[in-house]
Write a structure and sequence with these properties.
mainly alpha
Length: 219
Amino acid sequence: MLASLKKKETYENYWKSLKFSLYCMTHPMDGYWDLTHEKRGSIAAANTILFLTVLARLLKLQYTSFIFCRVYWEDVNIFLEIATVLFPLALWCVGNWALTTLFEGKGRMSQIYMATCYALVPYPLIQFPLIIFSNVVTVDEAEFYSIVSAASLVIAVLLILAAMMQIHEYKMGKTIFFALATLFAMLVEVFILLLFFSMIGQGISYFISMGREIIFRVQ
């Protein structure tokens, strides 16, 4: 009985934290402050929003009218499409945390991840209806589709700025500066990763060549 009540309470808290994402979207300043400082958000809800964002991305490729989105599936890698969402998110969270930690930022890694995911809500919220809309409109209405689709990204970016400002307790100018600095840090992270994997690849190639040489000499 106790376990059942605890499970029900956990489920209710999850739904409350998930619905709170809509409040964050319409009241970003108050919402993102309460999200972290009042603990009204949850990692579980953030993961759900991220999943819906990835799902919207994939369904957009599959079901959006060819008038607005031409996809050649023989050239599409599903895992690469998923990575186009997850990889930049991971780079953003790590880069933002690394920089703001050095300059009196209040946000922890988990809070940066959670707030960023909550800021992505406009994307699936707008893209899902747009997928249906794209199949019932004409070419003449393509401009409206493009504007609304772009708006889902613009609103998400603005919400990310609001989220970072609230969780790090920065002013707007400082938030924008560190957002740009984080973008630069993401490029540095990519360079380091490429360098790391390049070195690993060269190391593996060296040992394979050395192994072949040893086998050749033994024979």
